[in-house]
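Hey team,

Filing this mostly as a record. A colleague (T.K.) asked me to run one chain through the structure pipeline before their review meeting, and I want the input and output archived in the tracker in case anyone asks later how it was produced. No errors, nothing strange. Just documentation.

Input sequence:
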Amino acid sequence: MPEMITSWNQLQGHHQQRELLRRTMRQGRLAHAWVFSGPAGIGKRQFARLLAMSVFCQQHPAEELAACGTCRGCRGVLAGTWPDLHELERSEGRQEIRIGQLVGEGDRRGREGLCCELSMTPQASDRRVAIIDDAHCMTTEAANALLKTLEEPPARSLILLITDDAASLLPTVRSRCQELRFFALTSQEVKTILLNEGYTDSEDTAEAVAAVCAGSVETAEQLLDPHLRELQQAVARELDQLDAVNTLNVCRTVLESIEQMSGSAAEQRQNAQWLLKFIAETVRRRLTILLAGDPGDRLTRQLGLRGGIDLLRPMLDRTIKASMQIDGMVPVPLAVAALFDELGQMLRRAFRDA
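Output structure:
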């Protein structure tokens, strides 16, 4: 189980976003509502919680955007018990944030829910903070209920909407918030998070997963699934043996791996996409090695002698094309078999012309 971060020093990335908010707070111009948008799994919610800690921290002025992590306010945020912090997310088993979560259900309508909480006087500080995770999952009715609060925000309230897809928010909601864009983490930042927060204690595993997770810790966590790790290792092993002769055997091996770990057609497609990402990352890594002029493993050296960059780039392009074919509902075995067939043809031409 990953550990919760307790200070800004533990947060990986997003330094520019923090500095922008710090300047805004020092100038006394902090908007009452923000949309934190960007890819899933990059730490937007952690950032929002650290912002809340900074607001409630009793050791630092709010305009410093700093949190000690040990005072009563910081401990309350970390424990989820601070009375002036309200966090909202989808109920367990549901795909939507419902209007009842904003304004109450049935005869309690208007007397419960997030909007009601925000309208009350702060209990332990001079501000109330609301964090709405997956804000793009609000139903239209829920979003319209929130809109009334955004149009007439309670004094000293701060509303943070977290979303992977800001375009999915109601335009009227989005227009009443300041948007702060967040971006994918670097591979090194993801690796550090995986090790420091207890996702894995293996540096090699963390590095391998960070290389293919597209800067998302959420994706990295999925890749730490033992079955996907086995697939990644199988791909690396088979690609190390890939030559102009045995592409059919490699294809058969990887398809068998996908079949064994997939319980449905949807899982098969998802796992095939992981396979293609693993292949693409391997090819990119070999391109980087060749461009640096320092071939590493046997196959990279051979490819450097037999076409090098002019071979690897088409291999990468063809892998991306296979991914697009699977997205277009081409059957997985057909798309993967066609990919390896063409990779074999490329290798045969390169070996013949060398």
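Quick notes for T.K.: The first helix runs from residue 15 to 26. The chain has two domains: 8-181, 225-353.
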